[in-house]
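Sample entry as discussed:
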Amino acid sequence: MPTNRATVSTVRASHRLLSGDASINDRSILAILNNNAKTLIRRELNLRRLVATDSIYTTIPCLELERVPISECGVYVDECEVARTKIKLPRIEESNYFHAIQGVFAINNSVKLKEITLSRYINLLKLSKRQNDIYFWIQNEYLYVSSPDVETVKISAFFSEDVPTDILYPKGCDSCKCKFVKNEDLCKNPLDNEFKCPGYLIDNVIRMTSKFLLETYFNIPQDDNSDNQDGQARNNVKQTKN
C-alpha cells in the first residue's frame, strides 16, 4: 500500500501545473485525497464490499473500559452492569447496513466480540435464559461491552475522522503495559503513514483530486471524458484570459 507522501507525489506528477505550485502544500492535497477516498469507500460499503479487506481499517490497540450500569444506555432498568470505554471514540463510518467495524477483541481473554444493537441486547436480557456470548455496541460515541469483566479491548474500524495520536498510541495504558507503543510511532510524520484506500480505487481518487485542484486553484474546468493533459489546461487558461 502506498504512503500518503507517495500518493501526494503522484497527484503532483499528474500535471506540471500542480507539481510546480508551492502554494498548494502537501497536507492540503492529502486532505482532499482522504475526502475523495472516503466518498468512494462509503459507496463500496453500501454495496457490502470491503468488509474483509485490511486496506481501509485503522486499529486502536488498547482501549480501557470501566463498569457502568446498563441504565446509563437508556430507559431500560436492570441490576446488571456492562463495560464502557473511558473515552469517546472517533466517529466510525456507517453504511446503510452496519458500522464499518472489522472487529472488536477483548484483550484480557482474546475473545472476538459480537456486534449487536442496544435494543436487541435488551431483548436478550428479558429472556429467562441469557446468552454466554459477549456483545458490543456503539452509543453516543462510546463502545459498550455486555460483560462488565472486560477491562480492555482492541478495535479495528474505518474511522471517518482522524484518530488522535494519544488514542492510537495509548502511552500510559496500565492495563496494556504500553507494549504496543514505539517511540518512532509517536514522532511519525502523518505523510509517512499508509494511504487508507483499496488499490483498485486509488487511480480514481487521484483523478478526482487532480480535477478538484485544477478547477479550484487554477480555475481550469476539466472534461471528465478527456485525459486532462497540461496542454489542454494551458489552452483553457488562454481562453479564459481572452
